[in-house]
Design a protein that fits this description.
The complex is a heterodimer of chains A (329) and B (488). Chain A folds into 2 domains: 1-155, no CATH class; 156-319, no CATH class. Helices cover 74% and strands 0% of the residues of chain A. Chain A contains 17 helices and no strands. Chain A starts with a helix and ends with a helix. With 488 residues, chain B is an alpha+beta fold. Chain B contains 15 helices and 24 strands. In chain B, strand 16 (370-374) and strand 17 form a beta hairpin. The chains are: A mainly alpha (329), B alpha+beta (488). At the A-B interface, helix 1, helix 6 and helix 17 of A face helix 9, strand 9 and strand 11 of B.
Chain lengths: 329, 488
């Protein structure tokens, strides 16, 4: 497969996942705002700040909107073209990547991503976001799920498919780590105590962002507790949005591409993913809190970036070296 | 029920569907009957459905009139154009004859140049042609085939006689619309299509792949074939991607390829992989910055060297542009006589060459009645339709022609035939042309279908998509259909 195509498939998949994650977090925030509106001393606006922070675009956001309220935040994550990580921008980039890889993906996949893109760039999307944001975000999430289902059912599960899977899982692991980290930064309204009502609602919203509330309740019958939520999202072996689950399958997909034995590594990407995988297999939540949750999540994010870079170096950039050989020779 | 044709004006042109007002041509009678049973709103719905399908499938071209780039669909008219078997048979023979002569001409021009020595063609004409590539003199192309893929534009005059307007022997485009239009018709008009015995066009991609494999270097058994595109910003990108997909080959950009030690490779996740045949959709000028335009970022440095060494094949070959030069066009009937000893089956449109003294004065005097074309432009650019131009525009063209006689020709305005097209609520006659696609490999293959382009603007004679043109599905009827129609 062409190196450029592998890269495009990887990013197409990442961008769709990113669009979905934006829709999830925006939707949950919207609900959170309603949950907290009657709380004494609560500032509804404050609920949007962590979301903007998680995108690491605070400055751009501040520069684009005179009044940085909830409506501005929603526009920023959804349709703002200047935000290169808005839902619009992600889907536009996903679709552009899809356009250049149409001989690799199925027509059904292409039509789905194209339709989703045509939707977000239409006036009706703008109107829907204003009149019924819930429906707008739902449509994005469902659109992304549909794309994944179509992909699973219509594309050969070969090299292309594995590259797409890796893109999606790395993006998802990154999102799960960020959403957990964001909660860490939320300041409780003054007078509230840790483990109190507001605190619980906020932790529940973290779980909802990852579609994990129901799964969590099945694993832990007792109430929502911070360390339990963190444990669930970081180390659960079977929940498809936990960091460990994502990393397990990134590692598996990498071995499928190279054809090497899963117990060993054939290249740097596999070495890094294998190492992160085993860390996540054996770490306990006690150790994580001792290390510092925020520090641990930052480390995970960094290691995900390293895996992504290694994949690019091995599969996409290596053939470029031939050019240098050629021009010097 | 539908009264689509009640107010239809046949006009003074050759009408594809009606011999005279109220008298339908036999091969269109079943179509007319079907339309009589169709409700206008159902037709509108089908039209919208077709347009929506093109949009969601991304069958679009991009117009860059602002920084964003707007995607448009190529307007599709749902009334098919129907060609009876006998008519097609003549067209087919004419096209086979023409491409055979053009290939012999190219081989001759790049070798002995006997046609110039015998003064059938003035030799300055060739030497001064913008697309002549003297660097490829005495170069042998694989299997002596130069034009593997040709799109020849035909028009019909007021008597309904077919004639050749031009040959596109470099990178003809549009064939994806032939295939997609048929798909669209199958979806929106299944019953209509079932009424006729229409010859299928679906195996075009397979035939094209056969041609590309046939010209592989040293008759390699499992050659790697790729399609080279200028990239997603090219207005024909959809077609490039479509063809690559339907042939199951890689679509590559210049940056995906690398030429090393006279071999071409593509950069894959498993390292460099040799490439044998390149179906290039990039003009000669941009193929290789070492040989042609130095500023080309689209091509591959060293590609031409690999081609010269016979390690990679190109379709079409380098230098075919001399064959679709609009001045050289004038001499094609003479070429046919010279190489094949036959009369041209499909005549040319009468052409005046500005480089010929008497022709020049005729052009200058009669410019208002002529179509003037630059020798090497396409897409409806660089031309003047005298009958529809202002005095100032005509004067400007007079100056251009005088300044550069070699590069201008003029032709009488052909009153192109018309076919009914659905225009805002009813059927109206619109001018059309016909572009069949010819493949030259082990044998010459012409898919029984073509792109019918239609000038949707009332009265316009310019069918190019860049100038407000649309297209129609083109039905070539089976032999048996003809006999049935004859009995009816």
């Amino acid at each position: 497969m062409l190196s450029r195509v592998a890269d495009s498939l990887y990013w197409m998949s990442r961008y769709i996942e990113r669009a979905e994650n934006n829709a999830r977090i925006a939707d949950v925030n919207l609900q959170l705002q309603l949950d907290l509106i009657n709380q004494p001393d609560s500032d509804p606006q404050q609920q949007w700040n962590p979301m903007i922070s998680s995108l690491e675009e605070n400055e751009l956001f501040a520069s684009l909107y005179a009044k940085p309220d909830g409506r501005a935040a929603m526009d920023f994550v959804s349709l703002q073209k200047k935000n290169r990580n808005s839902i619009y921008s992600c889907l536009a980039q996903a679709r552009e990547n899809a356009r250049t890889t149409r001989e690799q993906i199925s027509s059904e996949m292409w039509e789905q991503i194209n339709q989703l893109y045509l939707f977000v760039q239409s006036d009706s999307a703008r109107r829907l976001l204003r009149s019924s944001p819930y429906e707008f975000f739902k449509r994005i999430v469902v659109g992304s799920h549909l794309f994944q289902g179509i992909t699973h059912a219509t594309m050969t599960h070969g090299e292309s498919w594995h590259f797409m899977r890796i893109g999606r899982l790395l993006e998802r692991a990154d999102f799960s780590s960020r959403i957990l980290d964001v909660k860490y930064h939320i300041l409780l309204p003054s007078g509230e105590r840790v483990g109190g009502n507001v605190d619980t609602i906020q932790w529940m919203s973290v779980l909802k962002s990852c579609s994990a509330l129901e799964a969590y309740r099945k694993s832990y019958v007792n109430q929502v507790a911070p360390w339990k939520v963190a444990e669930f999202i970081i180390t659960h072996a079977g929940f498809p949005r936990s960091i460990r689950f994502c990393v397990d399958f990134v590692d598996e997909a990498l071995h499928c591409i190279s054809g090497s034995d899963e117990a060993r590594y054939a290249n740097e990407a596999e070495r890094l993913s294998g190492r992160l995988r085993s860390d996540l297999d054996y770490i306990t939540i006690g150790e994580i809190f001792k290390f510092g949750l925020h520090e641990y999540l930052a480390l995970i994010q960094q290691r995900l970036v390293e895996i992504s870079n290694a994949i690019f170096d091995i599969y996409c950039a290596s053939t470029l070296a031939a050019d240098e050989e050629n021009s010097s020779g | 029920m539908g009264d689509f044709f009640s107010g239809y004006e046949v006009g003074e042109f050759f009408d594809e569907m009606f011999a005279r007002p109220g008298e339908v041509r036999p091969h269109y009678s079943k179509l007319l009957a079907q339309f009589k049973e169709m409700a206008p709103d159902s037709f509108e719905r089908k039209s919208a459905l077709a347009a929506q399908t093109f949009l969601t499938q991304g069958i679009t071209f991009t117009v860059y009139d602002d920084d964003q780039g707007t995607e448009r669909i190529f307007p599709f008219d749902l009334v098919p154009r129907i060609i009876p078997a006998k008519e097609w048979e003549t067209i087919e023979r004419g096209l086979v004859q023409r491409i055979t002569a053009l290939n012999l001409f190219l081989h001759d021009i790049y070798h002995n140049q006997s046609i110039l020595r015998d003064k059938v063609l003035p030799k300055e004409l060739v030497w001064e042609a913008a697309h002549f590539r003297p660097e490829f003199m005495h170069f042998d192309v694989p299997r002596d085939i130069y034009i593997h893929i040709c799109g020849t534009d035909l028009v019909r005059d007021e008597r309904g006689d077919y004639m050749v307007l031009e040959d596109n022997a470099r990178c003809p485009s549009g064939v994806s619309y032939v295939l997609e239009n048929r798909q669209a018709m199958k979806r929106v008009f299944p019953t209509l299509l079932g009424e006729y015995r229409v010859r299928p066009v679906e195996d075009y991609s397979q035939e094209l792949l056969n041609v590309l494999r046939y010209v592989a270097p040293r008759a390699k058994r499992e050659p790697t074939v790729v399609l080279l595109t200028p990239g997603t910003y090219n207005s024909a990108y959809f077609e490039h991607s479509f063809l690559a997909r339907s042939m199951g080959i890689e679509i590559v950009e210049g940056r995906d390829l690398l030429a090393q030690n006279g071999q071409v490779f593509m950069r894959t996740t498993k390292g460099l992989k040799p490439v044998d045949v390149i179906y290039r959709r990039i003009d000669d000028d941009f193929l290789d910055p070492q040989v042609f335009r130095k500023d080309s970022g689209l091509g591959v440095s060293g590609l031409v060297d690999a081609y010269r060494r016979g390690n990679v094949s190109l379709a079409n070959a380098i230098g075919t542009g001399i064959a679709d030069d609009k001045v050289v066009y004038h001499f094609v009937p003479k070429m046919i006589r010279y190489y094949l000893g036959e009369d041209a089956i499909l005549p040319n449109v009468p052409t005046y060459l500005a480089s010929v003294k008497e022709d020049m004065s005729y052009i200058l005097e009669h410019i208002e009645k002529l179509v003037v074309k630059a020798a090497n432009e396409s897409g409806g650019y660089g031309m003047l339709v005298g009958t529809q131009a202002t005095k100032a525009e005509c004067d400007a063209f007079r100056q251009k022609v005088k300044a550069d006689p070699r590069n201008y020709i003029a032709q009488p305005v052909i009153p192109l035939s018309r076919a009914p097209a659905y225009c805002g609520g009813g059927m109206e006659g619109r001018h059309i042309d016909l572009r069949p696609y010819i493949l030259y490999g082990q044998k010459v293959t012409i898919i029984p279908g073509a792109l019918t382009r239609v000038a949707l603007t009332k009265g316009s004679l310019v069918v190019n998509s860049s100038q407000g043109g649309g297209s129609k599905d083109t039905w070539i009827l089976d032999d048996e259909e003809a006999s049935e129609a004859g009995q009816a």
